[in-house]
Structure formats: structure tokens, C-alpha cells
């Protein structure tokens, strides 16, 4: 199969070799549903890892699109998971947030853990809080790309890989993602035509088993492009 060829349901292959499959994941499909589609094309993935995740190396939320890595061998799974564990991965996300972000760039560094009030959400904790013991450190850098009416397009650079990290962190600094129904504020504005959180995994840079550094890219999908075009009118 050639690069960028569609498998099904909008899932496209960005890159593959004997150890790694890089997929352009569309929104509206979770990683387990994605794996079901991949198994039809690559049944050998059942030999990697454990069901139902098999060779999935990291995660993207159901309504987040973009670059996702899947191991094709057990050896590859161990190698790439270690790169993530030891923060040897550079990830870039395109994000549209509510409000005008004043600073052109910044760094958000907190602790993150599951919310006690809502088990579906993550919550920010500060090291000075009495409940902070045992919580995991989360670090997210960001840079403003463009300010659009009552929204700001930014690039986010997560240095750690906590669940919902970007969504939780940006809500914490009072700039929740546009379209985010979980971390968004009550009655917050939403751009016309946006029916999911505006979060796209644009690129990922990682070391390969042979020592080569590769970077994989995913173009902004049509639904998010249309939202930006409307805001720029």
C-alpha cells in the first residue's frame, strides 16, 4: 500500500516500514475502533501487544484527528513506547481556543489527575495543594499562530502525555478549546459548523530503531479548515 492511501472510513496511511505504521486518524473514531479497521488490512497486528489495543503506541481522543503511531512488531512496540515514556518525542497540535490569548507564547506546568467530582474529566492540581500528593506532572508549551475574532489559533507542544492534557491545561488558563463539551465553560461561544473540539495532532518527531530521526505530518482536515475560513471572512 502506498503512502497516503486510504484504508477505509477516512483512515489514511502516512508511513510504514517493518516495525511501524503511521496513520492519519480522522475524528469521530476512537483508537479501538481504528484498530478494528486496521486489522482488516493488517491482520498480522493481532500478534502485537494485547487485545484490544494490540500495537497502538499512544492515544488520541475520539474527536481528535491527526498523527497516530501503531507498532507492527512486538519489538517495535517496546522500542517506541520507551521513546514516549522517556519524553523522546516532539508533538505539535493545532488548537483553536476561546478568547484572545494575550501572551504570544507560554508554558503551563501543573499536576494532573482524575477529577473527584467528575470521573470523565482530568483536573489540575498545584503542588502547594493538600491533595497534590501522588498526582502526575504535566507540561504543555504553546505559541500563538493567529488571533481570529473571539478565538485564538495556537500550536500546543505537550512535553508529557497525560490524558486530556492539552484540553485540561488550556481550560485551566481560561482558554478552553472551541467546541469542547467536556472542558468548555458554560454557554461559551462555538464557531459555526464546528461539531467537535478543535484539536489536531499536526506532527510528531521520533527516533527510529536504526537511529534515524523521522517527523510525520498530517494536514488540517476539511471540517477544521472550513471553520477557520469562516472566522477569517
Portion of residues in beta strands equals: 25-35%
Helix percentage: 10-25%
Low-confidence stretches: none
Q: How would you sum up the major sheet?
A: 11 strands, mixed
Named CATH topology of the largest domain: Pseudouridine synthase
CATH class of the largest domain: Alpha Beta
CATH superfamily of the largest domain: Pseudouridine synthase
Category by helix and strand content: alpha+beta
Topology as a string of helices (H) and strands (E): EEEHEHEEEEEHEEH
Could you say what the CATH architecture of the largest domain is? 2-Layer Sandwich
Oligomer: single chain
Helix count from the secondary structure assignment:
4
Radius of gyration: 18 Å
N-to-C terminal Cα separation, in Å? 39 Å
Number of domains: 2
General shape: globular
Mean pLDDT: 94
